[in-house]
Structures
1.
Amino acid sequence: MQSYTIGQAARLLGVSPDTARRWADAGRVATYRDPSGRRLIDGPDLAAFSVELAQTDADPDGSHTTVRNAFPGIVTAVKLGDVAAQVEIQAGPHRVVSLVTREAVEELGLEVGAEAIARVKSTNVHIDRA
């Protein structure tokens, strides 16, 4: 299972590391310390928090910007079928859903809590493992 530092989590959530630390200090997202003393967040915990954050802290006027067509974020759900799969990524306030092959999910090692980048072109969404 992948874990994230406060700085990595902040980047994925689209906030400053100070904001991510305050949320962790307030108990909004669970953290633990590794042997070297760094505070880490388990991938599935960060995925759940990113979905909650997008629902509760959304910009009221609905205006958001992205850098070109890349949406770096965290995988929040993977639904596997026999041939196809549905992958959901929370990229800051944006929820991106992509239908890809099961083989692609397995090759990329996509699982809840994994860092990934959704690239949108026209009506197609491509996923890169970050």
2.
Amino acid sequence: MNRREAINTGLLSLAALQAPAMGAMLGSNQQNENNMDTKAPFKHSVCKWCFNDLSLEVMAEKVKDMGITSIEIVGPTDWPILKKHGLTCAIGNAPFISLTDGFNDINNHAKYQSMFPELLQKAADLGIPNIIVFSGNRRGKSDAEGLENCAKGLDPIVKQAEKMGVNIIMELLNSKVNHKDYQCDKTEWGVALLEKMGSPNMKLLYDIYHMQIMEGDVIATIKKYNKYFGHYHTAGVPGRHEIDDSQELNYPAIMKAIAATGFKGYVAQEFIPVAQDKLDSLRKAVVLCDVAL
């Protein structure tokens, strides 16, 4: 299953929605609720779709001793399961939103705006901090037109999110390898959208894998634009596999750059493991990313 398929499976949750190194806490050498030491000032999460051979219940039990306190990119029917296991969903799906048919198409606005209030209320009730959204594919739209459409479509949703204490997070994805024609494929475009929106509850998901492919300069970008980033994803380049020395990115250095910005949100592992022991790969990735200031 790829990311697009994982997002689309959230549609199955729509009917249910509409019906009536290892750290997770802040500070150095503290312990989280799963009795793991922590060094990083940010928290650790993992994307469920990368481990879809495991049920959510099983995965929740397996990651508890890794310093992971969130399993993300899951929909509202899964949030109570995570809460039952003492975990959260750092960034939740809006199960009715398509990655390719996003807010840059004005024909989607009325539908999405009508469905968000209930989703935002549920997120607020269960303490889900972020909901993911997508620009959608260009389909011939200029950057200026796509940006204007996204701003118009998202404005009432973001205003609702402000009232409920939930963040709306638009993801930066590469349009070169994985998501052909996706519009929000450059940091500066995403930043321009956020500047136009002018809301503290609208942020970008800076996906390190995707932006390394599109523009490089990962650490310099984090230093320059970190105030616009509300969430981070990892994966190895090329291939989107383990973040070990088989790929080109220096993840400890990147994590130190993130830590130095004072970021206290979530960094999520979103690599597709190729090792036989997938959970061991996940554990090693968290250790690699758990850096102190």
3.
Amino acid sequence: MLAEPISFLINAASTTVGVDLSVKNIPSNSGFELPLTGGVGTGLLYAAGALLVVGAGLLFVRNRRNTRN
């Protein structure tokens, strides 16, 4: 991305732009390393959350059955 915006005017009489809008392709993400998202860490958190929900549901059902008897 450019540091400063490029201003230009588009109207019905003109179809050309007076500014060179060529884009330079910079390999390797311009030297920045993107963080790793997803993967095993989030999968473990999802599994732990699912176990908590199932466990809470089982406790609720067991408590409800004990209350009825």
4.
Amino acid sequence: MTTQTTPAFRYAAVTFDCADPAELARFYGALLGYRTLFATDDFILLGEEGAPGLGFTRIDDYLPPTWPDPAQGKQAHIELGVDDLDAAERRAVELGATKPERRPGEERWRVLLDPAGHPFCVTTLA
């Protein structure tokens, strides 16, 4: 009789759809200090040894999210922990993030949009 073992899974990466993987990789690479681990014209994986990564894949007919309007869903949402909300928001905007019209909960987190339109939050709660 053979014994089956349960495979160990670990979180490796999350991938964002976008029109321009290089643009989004530059933004998140600068924001998080991640380096390029793998790159083609259509896919880029960022990360650091031993940490989960972020991938960006080209979608030819990509439509950016319209959050908070549900017409085109968020597609993804990432929460980033920071020590200083104001400084983190300024840095993200310097790198290409934009501020959406709707920004709930600003005393605890800041909602921003990455260059491809995906909403993300910076928070001191993480």
